[in-house]
Each structure stands twice: as structure tokens, then as C-alpha cells.
Amino acid sequence: MIDSKNITDLIPQRAPFVMVDALTSVEAHRFESTFLIEADNIFLSKDVLGESALIENVAQTSAAGFSMVESAAGGEPKMGYIGSITRVEVHSLPKLGQTIRTIVEPTHRLDNIVMVKGSSFVGEVLLLSCEMKIVLSK
Amino acid sequence: MYLNDEKVAFDEVIEGIRGFLSEEFEVDPAVILAENNLKDSLDLDSLDYVDLVVLIEENLNIKVTGEDFKDIVTFGDFFDLVKKKLGR
């Protein structure tokens, strides 16, 4: 498990924009992360986290996961950046104090561009699903 | 007769390709001709190529890689690639 101390080794974002606490599982075709919503989160409004934070959370889970996979394969960690976001569906927004669990599954890859499906949950409740193209730095 | 049947069958594949490409990339199917430039006709950027990969897999059940696209300039090149991948 990669915790919050080391997560910034894997993603370009820095506080207060880091929206992932820990990578709890990383396999080539599935990454999973957790994120606790704390009171100082800049995307909180009336104790509810905005959808842009959920999208950022999926993107950062993707980036951190790919970086881990590349490192494990003996390569240099690669930073991932959002190329595009499609098929966004927001089902519910999480609240202060809740922990988001996010699952990212890479579906297609062409060179340094990867399409992923992302979904985030609180418990078993689906918050958001989307597709993203992540551009990995060469 | 066998060769003719093969040609008819692949013409149908090409018609299918013209259908899903024109729908996805919002172009007139009439521009999807063997001699036309694929990238320019569909106005593809690097991100769109991933969509193309997804479309090919979903519609034709074949996988293509970045390497496959290296020599693709025209739709004719693209049809040849599909033909090869389909084992025609």
C-alpha cells in the first residue's frame, strides 16, 4: 500500500489539490485508492464534496496507479495527465468525514495514451462513474 | 466464386466501417474513400486515435496497436490493415 506520505511521489499535484490518500491495490488492469474527506478540503461546500473533486480523485488514482505499474516494471515513474473526460455520471456526492473508495480500470492503450473507466464509492454507494483518457509523460 | 464471395463479404465490412466512423467522427460517409487521408478526413488528434482503437475493437472484434497505425495514411491502408487482422 502507498500511503499519503508517498503518494506525491506518484502524482504531480500538491496540497491542497491532492485528492488521494492511499493506493490500496495496484494491478496492471485495476487500481484502487482511498480518500478521507477532511474539513480543510478546498472542494467542500456546506460539508459536501463537489463533483470536480471526484473527477480529480479518479484522475489522480489513475496517475498514481500507472506510475506504480511503470516503477514495478523497472521503468521510470511516469506522470499522468487528463487528456479528456467523457461519460461522466454523478449519482451522489459524499460528505465531510466520509472515505471515498475509487476503482480505475484501464481498458485500452495506444502508446502513451490510456483510456480508463473510473468509479468512486462510499461504502457500496456509487458516487461517480466516468471514462478518461490519461496521457502518460514519455 | 470463392474469391467473389470474399470480396462481397469484405465490401460489407467496409460499409460497416464507413458507418461507424462517420457516426463517431461526425463526417459524411462519402469522404471515407480508399484514396482519402484518414487523419485529415476524420480530423483526428492523438486522443481520437484511442477512440478509433475502441471502435475497431467493439465493432470488428480485432485489436490494433500504435505500431499498426505507423504506416496508415489513407483509408485504403486502414481497410488493408483490417483485412489483414481479419485474416481475409
Integer-rounded radius of gyration of chain B? 13 Å
User: What is the count of distinct domains of chain B?
Assistant: 1
Termini of chain A, distance in Å?
A: 25 Å
CATH topology of chain B: Non-ribosomal Peptide Synthetase Peptidyl Carrier Protein, Chain A
Residues in helices of chain B, as a percent range: 55-70%
- Mean of all residue-level pLDDT scores of chain A: 91
CATH class of chain B equals Mainly Alpha
* End-to-end C-alpha gap of chain B: 15 Å
Poorly predicted ranges of chain B: none
Helix segment tally of chain A:
2
Strand content of chain A: 35-45%
InterPro entries (chain A): ApeP-like_dehydratase, HotDog_dom_sf
Protein name (chain A): Hotdog family 3-hydroxylacyl-ACP dehydratase
Pfam families (chain A): ApeP-like
Organism (chain A): Dyadobacter jejuensis
Description:
With 138 residues, chain A is an alpha+beta fold. In chain A, 19% of the residues lie in helices and 45% in strands. Chain A is built from two helices and eight strands. In chain A, strands 1-2-6-7-8-5 form a six-stranded antiparallel beta sheet, with helices on one face. In chain A, strands 3-4 form a two-stranded antiparallel sheet. Chain A is globular, with a radius of gyration of 14 Å. Chain A starts with a helix and ends with a strand. The model of chain A has no long low-confidence stretch (mean pLDDT 91). By secondary structure, chain B is mainly α. Chain B has a single domain, classed as ACP-like (Non-ribosomal Peptide Synthetase Peptidyl Carrier Protein, Chain A, Orthogonal Bundle). Helix content of chain B is 67%, strand content 0%. Chain B contains five helices and no strands. The longest helix of chain B has 24 residues. Chain B is globular. The model of chain B has no long low-confidence stretch (mean pLDDT 88). Chains A and B meet through strand 6 and strand 7 of A and helix 3 of B. Chain B: Its main location: cytoplasm. Chain B: Keywords: Cytoplasm, Fatty acid biosynthesis, Fatty acid metabolism, Lipid biosynthesis, Lipid metabolism, Phosphopantetheine, Phosphoprotein. Chain B: InterPro entries: ACP (IPR003231), ACP-like_sf (IPR036736), PP-bd_ACP (IPR009081). Chain B: Belongs to the acyl carrier protein (ACP) family.
